[in-house]
């Protein structure tokens, strides 16, 4: 079943120069891009995107980080796109959870600066795609 997921290359990924690398991995997996844009993120969008983490101690610094520089926002699609991109990304903690060969496992060191975001469920994907790309809202 074809589905869509919202992918972000966070400010650390953009600054590290891995936009091409991440997009290349998405394409090599067989997934396709339905939307792709370099964006500066308003705090309100970042806060809404990460609303489920609002009570977490790292919420403030997460918002500061996500709004610190441009991000790449993309809608990625294909069969089981949500799980497929999360497999490419690796676990949230780039050292303890992500394995070598994944984006975070290959390029990351710290949980906050973990390079990419991918929606974690069909419900999150619908919400996040609607937030970042209102024209694609389902
Ligand atoms: P992401 O997959 O975008 O979802 C929530 C983000 O919060 C996560 O990636 C990390 O960037 C960040 N995050 C999660 N846990 C922590 C933590 N313990 N400390 C700092 N940042 C975190």
UniProtKB/TrEMBL annotation:
The keyword Metal-binding applies. It holds the Pfam family NDK. It catalyses: a 2'-deoxyribonucleoside 5'-diphosphate + ATP = a 2'-deoxyribonucleoside 5'-triphosphate + ADP; a ribonucleoside 5'-diphosphate + ATP = a ribonucleoside 5'-triphosphate + ADP. Its cofactor is Mg(2+). ATP binds at residues 10, 58, 86, 92, 104, 114. Residues 2-137 form the Nucleoside diphosphate kinase-like domain. GO terms for biological process: CTP biosynthetic process; GTP biosynthetic process; UTP biosynthetic process. One of its GO terms (molecular function) is nucleoside diphosphate kinase activity. The active site is at 117 (pros-phosphohistidine intermediate). Homotetramer. Homohexamer. Major role in the synthesis of nucleoside triphosphates other than ATP. The ATP gamma phosphate is transferred to the NDP beta phosphate via a ping-pong mechanism, using a phosphorylated active-site intermediate. This is Nucleoside diphosphate kinase. It comes from Gordonia spumicola. The gene is ndk.
